[in-house]
Amino acid sequence: MSWIEVKDRVYTFIVGDRSHSMSEEIFKKLGELMDLIREEGYVPVLENDLHNVTTSEKEVLLLYHSEKLAVAFGLIATPPRAPIRVKKNLRVCIDCHTFLKFVSKVVTREIIVRDINRFHHFRDGNCSCGDYW
User: Fold this and answer.
1) What family is this protein classified in (predicted)?
2) How far is the C-alpha of 57 from the C-alpha of 77, rounded, in Å?
3) pTM of the entire structure?
């Protein structure tokens, strides 16, 4: 589960969540982000995903992680230069960590994610944790 606060209101996302009133726009934005970061060299990190499904099914499962949905919403709902701040109840997975590094680069926004272990400050394609989390 991930949370993002926008205009004094907290929005909660879970994996694959389509209950948000703006879910269509959020999923569209997520698709646009995926196109942009793939052009930059992003490849989903599937090795640590333990689901017993095909590779393409793993990619779909990873695509809709809660922090990705929260960040996509944040990009829609916040001013263009404002940092995006997301809180998460679990550790950020390596694929989401990689995704967030690429997104911070292509949208030139700071993304701050507080997971169960630490704050991750993503800026210009890098994370403050130095990829050790």
Assistant:
1) Belongs to the PPR family. PCMP-H subfamily.
2) 29
3) 0.91
